[in-house]
UniProtKB/TrEMBL annotation:
It comes from Sphaeramia orbicularis. Residues 540-551 have a biased composition (Low complexity). InterPro entries: C1-like_sf, PKC_DAG/PE, Rho_GTPase_activation_prot, RhoGAP_dom. One of its GO terms (cellular component) is acrosomal vesicle. This is Rac GTPase-activating protein 1. PROSITE patterns: RHOGAP (PS50238), ZF_DAG_PE_1 (PS00479), ZF_DAG_PE_2 (PS50081). Residues 239-288 form the Phorbol-ester/DAG-type domain.
Length: 579
């Protein structure tokens, strides 16, 4: 009996211990498990909702893709229809040309029994048939562009000179049409002025076997009068070299901002890739700056040389297009460069300029301050300032020299030490800022522009300056910009010329810049007079410009280190320079 009671008691104790164990530890575990279930339920619900949203997006995308495929099909059909229409029109033209040939043979042939006797007046009226036939026969004989009429053929051997070298000419290389250019030169016997008349005709290039697809490309090289056969004009500024093509994908004209529709003729520069209507060609921004082959991996992390081409002038295309648009629309805007544009617009424009293959149309940007902000942002975020880290202190020291002669001398010397991309870009920018300062409506004189562009152009001597250095440089930077803007326009203008143009600097006179005189040019091979005879002001012996007279001269030209470039005409040898 006692044993049974003890067994029951031990069993009861075990049950009670298990009950106490369950009461003490199981509740938190069950609560945690319930929370885990709730978290899983929420994640499941979120996944189901995301799945539904993704399905909706997928459905919408598939619908858009289907619509685009339909549009693409219609566009292809339209292109095929246009090609067939063109082929039919060319066949009709060829048929009409054969009929005209028969009529010409019937009317103008001589000594034939079938020929019609015409009077001299009638033959004169029908003379154009002979000209058209001759051009067509030349095209059928050779599939290349041929010279139709030579301007020298009417001149004698004595009076002949290469007059047509200075005439406006255009060369078309096309698979579907040929440009026939006729230049008539009239030389009066009484010694009067020579007159030249040019006529341009487009003759279709007919052939029986034609391609069903393809574009018509025309290479046009515009050679202005007096260019000597080089694509440079306007004082040596590099001009555009346009390529003509038929538009398949609509593009925007950079000068006017309007769309160039399907099937129309557009012009595209082969160097800088600017696109325009044929009638807007003269309004494209100059100089033509070829796009560089590559840009830095990340926008804003490269130096200036990474954004320029290998040909002079070495100016980033972004700077050229921004300044061109600002001068076109912004010279009447009060507070130009002082007011800021929308950051989002500036960022988008910079991305398009540095990443897109085509030139963005700045004429569509309504806010001119966004374009000025783009220019300042580009210069400010360069890895190295425009005046470089190495020359930062020399520029500041030169600007703070109290004597004007010495300050100008040091400034010229420091500018000549700049890398060519930095120097050319600085010259182009300073010329623009001088025009902005001359505009009264902008209310931005040299002092205001210097305060705005001081940190942007000058920067600091180190990549990460200390706060005290920033405070000190902020007071000195505007002085550098003021000194740069005070230099003559002719001095800056030489740097934006093309590489093969040598400026004539006889008219360049820098007041009080005594150390920049060159030897007398009265005699080509005679004795030279010293520069002291030409000084308007004689500086003291302690003057810096007097001490540096033999070593410091403004370095004209993009690559040469000579002091002053002389005129080409009338000189067989360059005048010696002071060493």
């Amino acid at each position: 009996m006692d044993t049974a009671v003890q067994n029951l008691q031990s069993l009861y104790d075990k049950l009670m211990s298990q009950v106490h164990l369950l009461n003490e530890n199981i509740d938190p575990s069950f609560i945690q498990m319930a929370q885990n279930f709730e978290d899983c339920r929420r994640k499941w619900l979120r996944a189901v909702q995301e799945l539904g949203a993704s399905k909706e997006i997928l459905t919408k995308t598939e619908t858009e893709r289907g619509a685009l495929e339909v549009k693409l099909k219609h566009a292809r059909n339209q292109v095929d229809v246009e090609i067939r229409r063109r082929q039919k029109a060319e066949a009709d033209c060829e048929k009409l040309d054969r009929q005209l040939q028969l009529i010409r043979d019937l009317l103008t042939s001589e000594g034939s029994s079938n020929s019609i006797q015409l009077s001299a007046e009638q033959r004169s009226a029908l003379a154009f048939l002979n000209t058209n036939c001759q051009a067509a026969s030349n095209l059928n004989t050779s599939r290349r562009l041929m010279t139709i009429d030579e301007s020298a053929s009417i001149l004698s051997d004595i009076s002949y000179d290469k007059t047509d070298d200075s005439l406006v000419s255009a060369f078309f290389l096309s698979g579907n049409e040929t440009l026939v250019t006729k230049t008539t030169v009239t030389v009066p016997t009484n010694g009067g002025p020579v007159e030249a008349i040019s006529t341009i005709e487009t003759v279709p290039y007919w052939t029986r076997s034609r391609r069903k697809t393809g574009k018509t490309y025309t290479t046009m090289k515009y050679l202005p009068l007096g260019s000597n056969g080089t694509p440079q004009n306007n004082g040596g500024v590099r001009l555009h070299e346009f390529v003509s093509k038929t538009v398949i994908k609509p593009e925007s004209c950079v000068p006017c901002g309007k769309r160039i529709k399907f099937g129309k003729i557009s012009l595209k520069c082969r160097d800088c890739r600017v696109v325009s209507h044929p009638e807007c060609r003269e309004r494209c921004p100059l100089p033509c700056i070829p796009n560089p082959c590559a840009t830095p991996v990340k926008i804003g992390e490269g130096i200036l040389a990474d954004y320029v081409s290998d040909t002079s002038p070495m100016i980033p295309p972004l700077v050229v297009h921004c300044i061109s648009e600002i001068e076109h629309r912004g010279l009447h805007e009060a507070g130009l460069y002082r007011l800021s544009g929308a950051d989002r617009t500036v960022k988008d424009l910079k991305e398009k300029f540095l990443r897109s293959k085509n030139v963005p149309v700045l004429s569509k940007v309504e806010d001119i301050h966004a374009i000025t902000g783009l220019l300042k942002d580009f210069l400010r975020n360069l890895k190295e300032p425009l005046l470089t880290f190495r020359l930062n202190r020399p520029f500041m020291d030169a600007a703070e020299v109290s004597d004007d002669d010495n300050s100008i001398a040091l400034m010229y010397q420091t500018i000549s030490d700049l890398p060519q991309p930095n120097r050319d870009t600085l010259a182009f920018l300073v010329l623009h800022l001088q025009r902005v300062a001359d505009s009264v409506e902008t209310k931005m004189d040299i002092h205001n522009l210097a305060r705005v562009f001081g940190p942007t152009i000058v920067g600091h001597a180190v990549p990460n300056p200390e706060p005290m250095t920033i405070l000190q440089d902020t007071k000195r930077q505007p002085k550098v910009v003021e000194r740069l803007l005070a230099l003559p326009v002719d001095y800056w203008g030489q740097f934006v010329m093309a590489a093969n143009e040598q400026p004539n600097l006889d008219h360049l006179i820098i007041e009080n810049a005594n150390c920049y005189a060159t030897p007398e040019r009265a005699s080509m091979l005679g004795p030279l007079t010293t520069p002291e005879h030409h000084f308007n002001k004689t500086p003291s012996s302690s003057s810096l410009s007097q001490r540096m007279k033999s070593s410091l001269t403004p370095r004209f030209g993009s690559k040469s280190k000579s002091a002053v470039a002389i005129s080409r005409q009338g000189k067989f040898f360059a005048s010696p320079l002071l060493k």
